[in-house]
Amino acid sequence: MKNLAYGFLALFLLSTNVFGANTKLDKIVVSGPFASVAHPILHMIETNALSDVADKIEFKLWKNPDELRAMTIRGNVDFVAIPTNTAAILNNKGVDIKLLNVSVWGILGMISRDDSLKTLKDFKGKKIAIPFRADMPDVVFKQLLKKEGLDPQKDFELVYVSSPIDAMQMLIMRRIDHSLLAEPAISMALRKTKSFPISIVAPELYRSVDLQEEWGEVFGSSGDVPQAGIAVMGHIKDEHLIKRFQEEYAKSLEWYKTNPIEAGKLVAKTIDMLTEEAISDSISHVRLKNVTAVEAKKDLEFFFNVLKEENPKSIGEKLPDDDFYYGL
Fold first, then answer.
1. Around 204, how many Cα atoms within 13 Å sit in the side-chain half-sphere?
2. Could you tell me the end-to-end alpha-carbon distance of the chain, in angstroms, rounded to an integer?
3. In terms of DSSP bridges, do strands 127-131 and 157-161 run parallel, antiparallel, or are they unpaired?
4. Fewer Cβ atoms within 10 Å of its own Cβ: the N or the C terminal residue of the chain?
5. Stretch 214-218: mean pLDDT
6. Got the DSSP string for 199-260?
7. Handedness of CA 48, 52, 58, 61 (dihedral sign)
8. Is the CB of residue 322 less than 8 Å from the CB of residue 138?
9. Dihedral angle at the C-alpha atoms of 297, 298, 304, 306, nearest 10 degrees?
């Protein structure tokens, strides 16, 4: 009788999660931009990859850093596809957010009507559209210019716009001839102006300087820049759920890299501002690899210090503490 009582007690404790049994959620809410870092999430949704831990995955698109910050501060998302510096800002401001991984190590480039512009120095004196003033793309661009002996204010005419889509539209409408963009906006602009493939007669726009290659030249590195990844919000305490999310994101990232045509179709079906051809084109121009936040910590801190040198606010004034890196 005593053994039977112990058996019932054990079953009760397991059912009430006292021993840490995993509870299946109704849904997991994931927020992300239209950019590449979010695309594997759409494959996770399509394949119902987390069906063992949640009935569904809901994706919420954020269109600019302000929308992203509002979503995380309100706490109505569970996981976020996010620029690494924005995650650092939120963490430094007291938002309970931890970085899980870095998956995008290069997404920034210049696009121009002039195919003779091969380095950032070649853009001296030009009028350039820049999205997200004082945010990561702008700060990286300015730091590279300064390291190469150029003055962003005096040597260039910088035109700030609210998003990469706005900059892309300015290029398409011939309101500007040069822009800093992130993929897949570069590929979108090339497709929309029929400038792809490059072998076409007299293309209107050209893929120009790869900012990651410039970074490698300036800092003597491989050029990998830890620009974006996945973060988890603090209210998610289930370590098994987090582990499963990391596993499935890594699998979907690999699928995305190796299946560009299918990936293009899948993403365009969900994010209507993108076209499947442009997404497919962009994949080979983005540095994609799944690295845990702990493994990427050294690279992240170097990156954050470079951003801080240009604009301390771009990382929230200081390097994030160790608790920012999930697993430390």
1. 16
2. 46
3. parallel
4. N
5. 97
6. TSSS-S-EEEEEHHHHHHHHHTS------EEEEEETT---HHHHHHHHHHHHHHHHHHHH-H
7. negative
8. no
9. -170
What is the rounded CA–CA span in Å between residue 112 and residue 98? 37
pLDDT for the residue 22: 61
Please name the residues in contact with 284: beta carbons below 8 A apart, sequence gap of 6 or more. 260
Where helices occur in 75-135 by DSSP H, the ranges are 84-92
Per-residue pLDDT at 195: 87
Tokens found for residue 19: 């021993």
Q: Which CATH superfamily is domain 21-106+227-324 in?
A: Periplasmic binding protein-like II (3.40.190.10)
Residue range(s) in the chain whose domain bears CATH number 3.40.190.10: 21-106+227-324, 108-219
pTM above 0.70, yes or no: yes
Q: How many CB atoms lie within 10 A of CB 10?
A: 12
285 in Cβ contact with 183 (< 8 Å): yes
Model confidence at 201: pLDDT above 90: no
The residue to which tokens 């494959």 are assigned? 43
57 pLDDT above the threshold of 90: yes
**56 residue type, one letter:** K
Question: Residue 183 pLDDT > 70, yes or no?
Answer: yes
Alpha-carbon gap, residue 86 to 66, rounded angstroms? 10
Check residue 127 and report its DSSP letter.
E
Domain 108-219 falls under CATH 3.40.190.10: yes
CA 279 to the chain's CA centroid: 15
Q: For 17-56, how does the pLDDT look when each residue is reduced to its tens digit (9 = 90+)?
A: 433 346 899 999 999 999 999 999 999 999 999 999 999 9
Instruction: Locate 17 and state its tokens.
Output: 């999660």
Residue 95: per-residue pLDDT: 95
Q: What is the pLDDT of residues 58-105, one digit of tens each?
A: 999 998 888 998 999 898 999 999 999 999 999 999 999 999 999 999
Confidence bin at 200 (pLDDT 50/70/90):
low
Residue type, 109: G
